Amino acid sequence: MHLGLHIVRFDWPGTPENTAQVLADIGRTADDAGMTHLSVMDHYFQIGMTGPPEDPMLEGYLAALHLAHATTNAKVGVLATGSQYRYPGLLVKIVTTLDVLSGGRALCILGAGWNEEESVGLGVPMPAMSERFDRLEDTLRLARQMFADDDAPFHGVTVDAERPINRPQPLSRPRPEIMVGGGGEKRTLRLVAQYADACNVFFASPGTVEDHAAAVAHKLDVLRRHCEDVGRDYDEIRRTAACTLPLAAGMTSEEVLHMCRAAADVGVQDLICMVDEPHDLRHLEMLGRDVIPVIADW
User: Fold this and answer.
1) Cβ contacts of 52 within 8 Å, gap of 6 or more
2) Model-level pTM?
3) Which of 216, 240, 204 lies closest to 107, judged by CA?
4) Given its phi and psi angles, is residue 182 left (phi above 0), alpha (psi -120 to 50 degrees) or beta?
5) Where are the beta strands (DSSP E) in the chain?
6) Mapping DSSP to helix (H, G, I), strand (E, B) and coil, where does residue 37 land?
7) CA distances in angstroms from 97 to 146, 174, 178, listed in the order given
8) Residue 236 carries which DSSP code?
9) Using CA of residue 23, residue 74, residue 58, residue 42, what is the dihedral sign?
10) What is the pLDDT of residues 190-241, one digit of tens each?
């Protein structure tokens, strides 16, 4: 099992003057600790479960590029890009640019999107959910085509691209990893089975760590059935889960290990963590010292 870091807040003391330096320090410390994944959210405004909309929020791909420049090993990306935020062909070009400029470390993480408040706030069209899912599927299909250097005309449900040139091609081989974020059982996990290299579900539910694990096990069982339906090898898909680690609130390394063990036991290969105060680098150093070496063989 591997650990990753998902950064959801940029409101540490001293911002915005120190935002660039602290974000680079967070990325560098996580990378040195052995975390294999670094990501930020793709939101215009802060989201309600984390803070008020007025809280600081950086543009996702610029922030990811900043993290890439501060690190050398971890994959970098935006978890997860809402289907309505960028035109699909342009999005593939953005991910490719991140991949080239990071030396082949970009992740392509896609989702259907959901936060109407920020789209309305900035004047970005917010299609109905059904259209967003159609656009997500079009983006997944177009990304696979463009990453394969195929500029044949593409015609989807929501987008037509007459010559989707993607030069330079990504450095990642065979392509930047395509991940779909979300646990929707009817369509999201089916899109994972059809098009994605990885999934990301939430390791969170009411109750205990064991309850969280049971909920994830159910989602992965659904994914397995979708794979059977479409003729896909379930084991080709990297299984990741997002979780919260309230280390500043007192969560211990033993409790983190208990969570990792429960996640690994139900098939999670990468646990992508939201740490409550990532700017306190001691928390990331503790994970690198006390957790990551222990779980490496799980």
Assistant:
1) 46
2) 0.97
3) 240
4) left
5) 2-7, 37-40, 75-78, 81-82, 107-111, 154-155, 160-161, 177-181, 198-202, 238-245, 270-275
6) strand
7) 13, 16, 15
8) G
9) negative
10) 999 999 999 999 998 778 999 999 999 999 999 999 999 999 999 999 999 9
